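User: Batch of two.

Assistant: Item 1 of 2:
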Amino acid sequence: MKITQLLLATVLLIGGFLLGTNFSSPSEAENTEQVAYNQEDSSATNPETEPSPTPSLSYKRAVDPVNTFGTHESAVINLFESAAPSVVFITTSSLSQARWSMDVTEIPKGTGTGFMWDEKGHIVTNFHVLEGGNKFTVTLSDQTSYDAEVVGAEPNKDLAVLRINAGPKAKPLPVGKSNNLKVGQFTYAIGNPFGFDQTLTTGVVSALGREITARSGTKIYDVIQTDAAINPGNSGGPLLNSSGRVIGVNTAIYSPSGAYSGIGFSIPIDVVNIVVPDLIQYGRVKRPIMGVELVSPNYVRDAGAMIRNVSEGSPAERAGLIGLSRGRNGVTLAGDLIVGIDEKDISSNVDLIEALEKYKPGDNITVIYNRGGKMYETSLKLTSSVK
């Protein structure tokens, strides 16, 4: 009996265990479903659990491979690319030696522009670009630099010539004419304003026949006025026409502030083409001269240019002109007072100098002068300032 009860209890225990593994209580099932729901919901809202793909956003535009220029743009681009290698950057400095240490110090004086005149390395620039310096460095468009020597200068025209040993890199700009320019035609200036190299500005011929005053106080005539931007550092650079030929040398601006205000001036190439060959050959301009020294205007009360001294063997001496002299009582007697050259009235020393610049050595002129209150005239043949 006990054995039978024991077997029955064993059977019931095994059956209960098997039934327990297949069924669960309602509370357990509910809890299981809730856990599963929470897991599914969390995977949908938590990106760290399962990141969702994000579409790629781009604001970059597709590049149009076609790059075209208008006819005028292409012409200007070609003009600049052709001319730029012949335009140079000039740095002016002075060398100063300390008195006790004997150390040499280089002091910057300024910068400017120039352009190649010929294949021998001659460079045209303004006189005022070099003024005050004794060391000059020329930098080409490819950034190679050369020490430059001064060949000649003409302060009265604000022109000077440097020379460098650049070999085949010395490519001169083509030269045009300035006596046939028209107001309104296009102009192009290449230079180094404020130290920025290889800068192109464009404009037109604004006016012709302007007059500006050189550092020496003499007038420069027939100057070209342009509205192509010319700023400090552009001085000495070329002014080009639409065919890329030099028609002037940029030299000055009219501006109360010192910066570009729409009015720039260029020395006409016709003048440059007369002055530069003399500077290269002689180091100075071969001027027509009469052979006289003039009295300072501070000591002359009447309008005109008074002769102080007449050079021996000069055209003035052969024409019978006389300078200051002393009377028997030691009083200084006035020299001849020149009041006219041909048809031009002369009222000052500057007038006489400027009048003679319109002639060349070998020309004959008529001189009208006042001697002792009486008017006379004589003819003479001008000679050269360079022997």
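Item 2 of 2:
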Amino acid sequence: MDTPKIFESEYRFCLILWREEPINSTALAKICAKELGWSRTTTYTVIKRLSDRGVVKNENATVTSLVTKEQVQLAQMDELVEKTFEGSLPSFIAALGRREELTEEQIAEIRRIIGR
């Protein structure tokens, strides 16, 4: 199954959900009001929209995610690599390396990950 597209504001919502789940929709709306400045109806609209796309489940007023943070991040990275770097992961990594000075720890972590 492909990971559904999640837009920026939806991603910020999902960060809260992943941290708090499972959570009652009323409690989630209160957190979204505090952290995102959303009204209750905005939160319920986003829950409905993400539910329709298979990102979250709202059952008996309890909201849980159907996709993980890692799945969403990988899908977004794949989209970025495809659109911006013509599908070339080495080009993406080379650009990232030129963009910022990596510490020895970061280089070691990247080598560890690639070595999998």
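The chain has a mean pLDDT of 92.
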